[in-house]
Amino acid sequence: MRCLTNFNPSFKDHSMIKVGDQLPATTLMEFSEVEGGGCSLGPNPVDVAKASAGKTIALFALPGAFTPTCSAKHVPGYIQHFDALKAAGVDEIWCVSVNDAFVMGAWARDQKTNGKVRMLADGDAAFAKATGLTLDLTGKGMGLRSNRYSMLVKDGKVVTLNIEAPGKFEVSDAATLLAQAKA
């Protein structure tokens, strides 16, 4: 029998987020290259609850910045479908990854996302853990990451959720989320 010396009675079971749930009350970080809109240069906190209030958000998450599938297909798809997503009622597109804000800022420059996709850093995987959508890539030298998924969020509440099987890129693409936004 194991002794539970570190038992925390306030611990909550972090089951997986589902349609109808609110986004977790966490803070992501966003790198800003220009001052303005209340944002200073460098990393700025993004309160998920406040940033999603009253908006329709196409949110997609992925294992890591500069990784092959994410850079070649996932982010470019959302940039390509930006106008159609806006026309379907999406206010903002968020890309969330377990990376620091500096890496996400560099990746935003590389992918030319400015004004189209907000590249949000989940540096300590707090958002990924809170959604229950983590991916353990420790064996591949990447540590705890986010699973690949997409969701349509309205006023902070999950309306659709598309979770990829490990190593797959079939349901979290921009075209799938666009079809759901139009429905």
From TrEMBL:
InterPro entries: PRX5-like, Redoxin, Thioredoxin-like_sf, Thioredoxin_domain
Species of origin: Albidiferax ferrireducens (strain ATCC BAA-621 / DSM 15236 / T118)
Biological process according to GO: cell redox homeostasis; cellular response to oxidative stress; hydrogen peroxide catabolic process
Molecular function per GO: thioredoxin peroxidase activity
Function: Thiol-specific peroxidase that catalyzes the reduction of hydrogen peroxide and organic hydroperoxides to water and alcohols, respectively. Plays a role in cell protection against oxidative stress by detoxifying peroxides.
Keywords (A to Z) from UniProt: Antioxidant, Oxidoreductase, Peroxidase, Redox-active center
Regions that span the bilayer: none
Gene3D superfamilies named among the record's database cross-references: Glutaredoxin
Name of the featured protein: Glutathione-dependent peroxiredoxin
Reaction equations catalysed: a hydroperoxide + 2 glutathione = an alcohol + glutathione disulfide + H2O
Domain Thioredoxin: 17-183
CDD domains: PRX5_like
Superkingdom classification of source: Bacteria
Catalytic residues of the enzyme: C70
Family, per entry: Belongs to the peroxiredoxin family. Prx5 subfamily.
A single GO cellular-component term on record: cytoplasm
EC number: 1.11.1.27
Pfam families for the chain: Redoxin
The keyword Oxidoreductase is assigned to this record: yes
